[in-house]
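In response to the reviewer comment on reproducibility (Comment 2.3), we provide here a single inverse folding case reported in full, input and output, so that an independent group could reproduce the run without further information from us. The structure tokens appear first.
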């Protein structure tokens, strides 16, 4: 729990720095009085050039904020989509995948009951650290995300639902008999 709390603090600080950093001044850019007057002209010229290059208009700042908001919205959409996929897995939206998950969970439960955790962790570690030696050109993938990508989210269910043909009795349109 402690490492997770530390990671959350790091993540929070990273977000704060990535969002606020473009709008704050660095310590080196703060204006202060120099004790040496002979280099003032060169410093003022270089500072004015830096300030002109680094000053951004209100429109540019607004565009940056829009990009950050769009990134945040897309990330939250991806997270919500994963949650909907998990919900649809447990609701048996795609029954074959739900039964496959139940079968895999039963096998994992039996393996964890029969084989000590120490041996399983040793096998996992050996597999992890020798994977590059056994298959150097293999592509990494996440099996859980691959499984969840096959389960439709709520938006996908709405997009791919079956449409009712026109003229059915439930639609209120009566067919004429010949």
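Designed residues, in position order:
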């Amino acid at each position: 729990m402690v490492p997770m709390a530390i990671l959350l603090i790091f993540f929070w600080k990273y977000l704060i720095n990535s969002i606020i950093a473009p709008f704050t001044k660095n310590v080196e850019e703060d204006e202060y009085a120099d004790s040496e007057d002979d280099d003032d002209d060169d410093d003022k010229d270089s500072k004015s050039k830096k300030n002109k290059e680094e000053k951004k208009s209100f429109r540019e700042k607004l565009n940056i904020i829009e990009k950050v908001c769009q990134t945040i919205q897309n990330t939250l959409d991806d997270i919500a989509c994963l949650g909907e996929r998990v919900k649809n897995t447990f609701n048996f939206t795609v029954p074959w995948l739900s039964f496959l998950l139940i079968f895999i969970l039963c096998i994992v439960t039996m393996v964890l009951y029969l084989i000590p955790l120490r041996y399983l962790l040793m096998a996992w570690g050996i597999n992890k650290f020798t994977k590059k030696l056994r298959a150097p050109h293999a592509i990494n993938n996440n099996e859980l995300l691959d499984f969840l990508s096959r389960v439709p989210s709520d938006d996908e269910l709405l997009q791919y639902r079956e449409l009712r043909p026109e003229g059915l009795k439930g639609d209120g349109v009566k067919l004429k008999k010949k």
